[in-house]
Design a protein that fits this description.
single chain; alpha/beta; L-fuculose-1-phosphate Aldolase; 2 domains; nine-stranded mixed sheet; 14 helices
């Protein structure tokens, strides 16, 4: 996933494009940047702003958009009308999600947009927004409506939506004591999502929110789920904030565990393999990666759903979770009992051509016959896969790359590829089947 951040540079790395890069990276997305302005600021004071020229701004946009498939765009600081109009000309025909974080001033007090550019911001940029995420102050500034009641909140959101944004999220509302709420106005729906408040001033939470929101939308989540995701992501970043400089704390983003990141990256590569859809079975595919010495499927990370074929493409339908896979995870656990280094597996569609390619690639291949399966095993839920793997490897001295069976009554034939890591799974597929 490639996500583009268009915004200002913050040398403290608390906000701006530096913050977005950290957020994207923690979510295992590749972050690209286009700088609109250079700021001089730290955790205590705001200094100077110098916007980039239209020429270098356009060149940056042309460079990244001609070389990369951009999956989503976040727009943050846009200092003047020249910057706004240049961005508009480049993105006006874009069909990908665009999240606008309308930064008006920094936490340390600096004004981040010229007064003369406000009308152009409303005229040119807001209509590009799939979602715009003003906080209460920014929403009041843009709408010129004081938010002090439910009615005025709805009125302000509606006014901003009438400027052209498809969806509005007004963040940071203190509707209930000890809580912080976000008001969401979709095209045909509205609701409020509330969470716990952390009573501390910080630098970077707004950027974290909009970055995580963009990621979740591009990932395929509906807006309500994306808002909940970004709210939790931001809460964690505030909770982990640290006093690094002499002034306010900077939010901190802690990476997910390495297992999650590695499997996420591998699944992303898997779905991009040319013609991989031809290898997705009727029961669909799962891709798993386990902790060391997995004892149950709760120790195995997999897709709580499936990797599914949609026409000539492949998509992950569901989220990664421990215990998300049953059959492929069970096969992996049984393999790991004998070969402890094997911690990843994926199931693919069986056909003779694939087996032939695997043999030509000199893979170690094992098989079992579903027709030889004892009746008591067939009648016991979840035992068939365990029996099959155990049967296939019982006389092997080295761990197999592949185990397959040709099906049975009511059972689809299947190939399972095993490896130490998800990366090795991808390498084996590219080396043999594709």
């Amino acid at each position: 996933m490639n996500l583009l951040s268009i915004g200002g540079s913050d040398p403290s790395s608390g906000a701006g494009i530096q913050s977005d890069i950290k957020a994207f990276d923690s979510l295992n997305a590749h972050g690209l940047t286009v700088i609109t302005a250079i700021t001089g600021q730290n955790t205590s004071n705001f200094g100077m702003i110098e916007s980039v020229s239209q020429k270098i701004l356009k060149n940056q946009l042309d460079s990244v958009m001609s070389d990369f498939k951009i999956d989503g765009i976040k727009i943050g600081m846009v200092y003047n009308s020249k910057i706004i109009k240049t961005i508009y000309k480049e993105l006006k025909n874009s069909k990908i999600p665009i999240v606008i974080d309308p930064v008006i001033k920094s936490t340390t007090g600096g004004s981040l947009i010229e007064k003369t550019a406000i009308n152009d911001f409303k005229k040119f940029l807001i209509p590009l927004a799939t979602i715009i995420t003003p906080n209460k102050f920014e929403a009041e500034f843009l709408s010129q409506i004081k938010i002090n009641s439910k009615k005025s909140l709805q009125k302000a959101a509606q006014k901003i939506q009438n400027m052209g944004a498809k969806n509005i999220i007004i963040t940071g509302l203190e509707i209930k004591k000890g809580c912080i709420s976000d008001f969401v106005l979709e095209e045909k729906n509205q609701y409020t999502i509330t969470g716990k408040k952390i009573p501390k001033t910080n630098h970077g939470s707004g950027c974290n929110y909009s970055s995580a929101l963009l990621f979740s939308l591009v990932y395929g989540n509906p807006l309500k789920k994306a808002v909940k995701f970004s709210k939790q992501f931001t809460y964690n970043s505030i909770k982990n904030a640290k006093k690094i400089g002499h002034g306010i704390e900077i939010t901190q983003i802690k990476n997910k565990d390495g297992i999650h990141l590695e499997l996420t990256n591998a699944i992303s590569k898997f779905t991009e393999i040319k013609n991989i859809y031809k290898n997705i079975p009727e029961c669909q595919t799962n891709f798993v990666f386990s902790k060391k010495t997995p004892r149950s499927i709760k120790d195995v990370l997999g897709v709580s759903g499936r990797i599914v074929k949609t026409g000539n493409t492949v998509t992950m339908a569901g989220n990664l979770s421990y215990g998300g896979s049953k059959h492929v995870a069970t096969a992996l656990i049984e393999m790991n009992k004998k070969y402890s280094e094997i911690r990843s597996a994926v199931n693919l569609k069986y056909n003779k051509e694939s087996i032939s390619k695997l043999k030509k690639a000199r893979m170690i291949i094992a098989r079992y016959d579903r027709n030889a399966e004892p009746k008591k095993i067939k009648n016991k839920e979840g035992s068939s896969v365990r029996w099959g793997v155990k049967y296939a490897i019982k006389n092997l001295k080295k761990s197999p790359d592949v185990i397959y069976h040709e099906g049975g009554f009511g059972k689809e034939p299947m190939i399972i590829i095993f490896a130490k890591t998800p990366v090795e799974i991808i390498e084996k597929i590219l080396k043999s089947i594709i």
